[in-house]
Amino acid sequence: MSNPSLLILPGDGIGPEVMAEVRRIIDWLGAKRGVTFDVSEDLVGGCAYDKYGTPLHDDTMAKAQEVDAVLLGAVGGPQYDNLDFSVKPERGLLRLRKEMDLYANLRPAQCFDALADFSSLKKDVVAGLDIMIVRELTGGVYFGEPRGIFKEGNERVGINTQRYTESEIERVARSAFELARKRNNKVCSMEKANVMESGVLWREVVQKIRDTEYPDVALSHMYADNGAMQLVRWPKQFDVIVTDNLFGDILSDCAAMLTGSLGMLPSASLGAPMANGRPKALYEPVHGSAPDIAGQGKANPIACILSFAMALRYSFDMGEDATRIEQAVEKVLADGVRTADLMGPEGGVPVSTSGMGDAILAALDASL
Ligand code: IPM
Ligand code: MG
Three-state DSSP class for 309? Predict the structure, then answer.
């Protein structure tokens, strides 16, 4: 059997720095666990635009369709802010999501004990928090037509369209219920059925999938604005949250901050199974390219490393090694190893990006 294949797209800003630490872990797995990946690397985002005039070259897109999993760092930077919309770095990422049809975006928000004091919320609100947001990723207002800026009489009008078909809602609902069965069997679906027809349909379809296929899973519905409030008020009431593309974008940033730092959170974007049974998959940290600290060795590589752990779990059936990496992260945090973003008001000396990588590798060694 051939080796599992990975396409690495470090991207812009801190992307290459944090991805370098993932590559060290891939090497570690090869040396110490006998798992070898076929790794290739390519450009996405602003760096691809600089070289090719497009944020995602067709060849890169084709490669992404062929590999078992794609690992992405981050895209974007202020130097690209004034580019035409169609070639902005973000379009590269959106094209990958759309053309690979990665409809289910899994965004876990987990509060590590060692960081519970670091959240902007009270410790008892976040300690032990472990929730999973399932964000629909290929539909809704991000992609709906018509869209654009049009002339209407004497003025312009900006238009985007929220649109969901029943089958789009069904498939992401199934992803959420399947995940819930492996967790605490509880799903909360969020929309705005009080103002949006797409929300009415969303609620109806999610309920139907629950009643016909997952009667064992508890389902509740919440308006997304209330959901945002509840996430901050008492997030531990949730297990799995399923929601649309735009609400999921916003709610997942909100959930991320519960855990202390955006620098901690991984994500998996999954599509339908390929011929080999593995889902189409892209893994990326939730954080962005952080141009303000890029190139300084200050970035926290944990979100990217945990994204790779998700790849091991969801693409490669290597749950044991995924857990090993997650436990190594937990261990170094418990030992007080902190990158700059994890420095509390009491201060201390932060480690660099590669310093965090060193500590995690040492913890991995110790786990053998
Ligand atoms: C995210 C990001 C992206 C999104 C941007 C970079 C296009 O905010 O992954 O949450 O809006 O989906
Ligand atoms: Mg976002």
Answer: helix
